[in-house]
């Protein structure tokens, strides 16, 4: 994390690898999710890897991403086999990762067993990156301490030295600067190897220093719940608070606490307040620009784009049991531009599925309407009269996620509804845009109900786009 970490951002990226409870179902590669508030994180690329490491055994765990003063992104991560190396790569755009290699950070320390969960902070005073990680030396993993090195160019490094040793086993450190002080969240793992001497379960605690390099002193009375690890700080400018994220690795979930001053922390936020991708583990969170977020959404969440202007219904899915526009979903967005020559009657803009499981958007007697249905349960919303315009291009979008259905016109939300609906099940009806292709989600099946006008730039996304996203697209 940069020492100047309080930035005016409204977009955040999370990098993570995946596994189930207790290290099962492992997918040890780089994954992405994004958030607007730091609480609800939506997976990109359908929760599949966005980048795969080729060093060592091809394993990427505990990714940490940070931006340098030149705007370039740097990625460090845990690799296998165990030993004196960590993984490294750099990127201009968070999409193409280059210069992949191992960094021999513990090569000069005898009997190094492992080098785990590396992170770094940029030291603006010395124009250097401070890289820190946990290593154990000897015969096993029972004496992990934190070591560090410095670099200006990621090519040459200062001799490795001890960074933090509280006298017991620690891993998973993360640093942040707040009002001239440096705070460290770090996992106390002493119980794992010495349960009789340290009977309290593993958890994360906080320490503070006046200098980036330390020494750090423990802040009494602040810790995350039992059986947590992988702490990570993020400043969320919209609420002027720090969020501390941590991983219940054995239970397959995340927890979040928050503070405005790094001294007084909330209790753990309720699970209803947060959302994380399924099986996400040991994440890194970083603020990004609107331009960067939109590029990532277009790369990893855009399912299909139909740019050509059309004046009649376009079928994009046949009547069949599998394939595009037939798969179950919990999140989806459809965005299009249309020019209507009339707004009377029924004119279907988008038609997926049927009246049992489906999603649809239409013009109905001057109103813009949308509906989602799952196993026959329906959620229908409509905008107000006098919003639609004739003979000029407009942007319409419908978004769905976590039971919330939103309808947008020219980047402004005109209707929103919520129902106890999450999964829209597989559906085998034909579908498309600019008209109806069977019995639609509204329950109507009388003819094509074609748009009287033109449609162009139809885009379907695998995430529930938000108002800020759509405004960037207008």
**Structural class by helix and strand composition:** mainly beta
**How far is the first residue's CA from the last residue's CA?**
33 Å
Q: Could you name the ranges where pLDDT drops below 50 across 5 or more consecutive residues?
A: 1-5
The percentage helix is under 10%
Mean pLDDT: 96
Rounded radius of gyration (Å): 25 Å
**Strand line-up in the sheet with most strands:** 20-31-22-27-28-29
Number of helices: 3
Share of residues in strands: over 45%
Q: Specify the overall morphology.
A: elongated
Largest sheet: 6 strands, antiparallel
The tally of beta strands, per DSSP, is 31
Please characterize this protein's 3D structure.
By secondary structure, this protein is mainly beta. It has 3 helices and 31 strands. Strands 20-31-22-27-28-29 form a 6-stranded antiparallel sheet. Strand 24 (358-364) and strand 25 (367-374) form a beta hairpin. The chain is elongated, with a radius of gyration of 25 Å.
